[in-house]
Amino acid sequence: MWRRLGRGSVAQQVEAQILEVIESGRLAPGDRLPAEREFAEQLGVSRPTLREAIGSLKARGLVRVVHGRGVFVAHPETSRELRLALDRQAITMDELFAMREVLEVPAAGWAAAEQDRARLVRVRDALDALNAAGEREPREFTELQRLDAAFHLAIVDAAGNRFLRETLGVLQKILAGGMQTTLMVPGRFEKSRLDHERIMAALLAGDSQAARTAARRHVRAAHRTAVRRLRIETARNPAMADAVPEDDDRTGTGP
């Protein structure tokens, strides 16, 4: 990932190379840069020069320095604002799945059209890891939730859309909220697995329309499952009644 700089290299060149790696997607928000000594050796610069470059990137809000842990790629301003909005508001079930549909359906279509083979391999690997975890007994639902989110996030990455990449952290929070309510429902994992394979097949075939259709069907099926689970829980605990969304055509029917 990193190339050694030549003699006379200055902090601005180091800064430019780090920025290039971040913008290319090879480092995502939350990823950690190499340790200072190792990083300076890789680049062929002094540690003070590296510190100067990191300081400039930090001032621009592109990296954050965590004392005792290292330097991390910062979430862009767009992502931070969306994350704050999610934290400050109570997001309803309908809003959560509507946002999933808005983000995931076009992402699947773009990923199929983009045909970035290296990124599609990562999508396939993420799906294989999820399927393997689903075969283990007893199932670890926290792990399934993480791997399920990783699969969907890999599709977003394969879409090649820079704005979507900037909001990956927010999307991960949205995904976690929806999966928490669906993965534990008996039979849901098996149905979800079929949906995932349909999405994967469309991505590999480069069929953008089929990928969008499969992604939309998957999100809406998960939405219906989440609503049914909430209704069951509400019947047991009437205090949760406000959390259950009203019936509508989008919740009750799929494409």
The order of strands across the largest sheet is 1-2
Under the CATH scheme, the architecture of the largest domain is Up-down Bundle
In the residues, how many domains can be counted?
A: 2
Gyration radius, in Å: 21 Å
Shape: elongated
State the oligomer. single chain
What's the mean pLDDT score? 79
Q: What do we call the CATH topology of the largest domain?
A: Four Helix Bundle (Hemerythrin (Met), subunit A)
Helix content: 55-70%
Low-confidence stretches: 239-244, 246-255
Instruction: Look at the helices and sheets and give the structural class.
Output: mainly alpha
Helix run count: 12
Strand proportion, as a percent range, falls in: under 5%
Task: Please describe the biggest sheet, giving its number of strands, its sense, and whether it closes into a barrel.
Answer: 2 strands, antiparallel
H and E order? HHHEEHHHHHHHHH
CATH class of the largest domain: Mainly Alpha
Could you give the distance between the termini?
43 Å
Give a count of the beta strands, DSSP E runs of length 2 or more: 2
Report on the structure:
- With 255 residues, the protein is mainly alpha-helical.
- The chain folds into 2 domains: 11-73, Winged helix-like DNA-binding domain superfamily/Winged helix DNA-binding domain (Arc Repressor Mutant, subunit A), CATH 1.10.10; 79-252, Four Helix Bundle (Hemerythrin (Met), subunit A).
- It has helices at residues 11-23, 36-43, 47-59, 77-88, 93-114, 117-135, 141-159, 162-166, 168-180, 188-205, 208-236, 249-252, and strands spanning 63-66, 70-73.
- α2 packs across α3 (47-59), α7 packs antiparallel against α9 (168-180) and α10 (188-205) packs antiparallel against α11 (208-236).
- It is elongated and about 60 Å long.
- Residues 239-244 and 246-255 have low confidence and may be disordered.
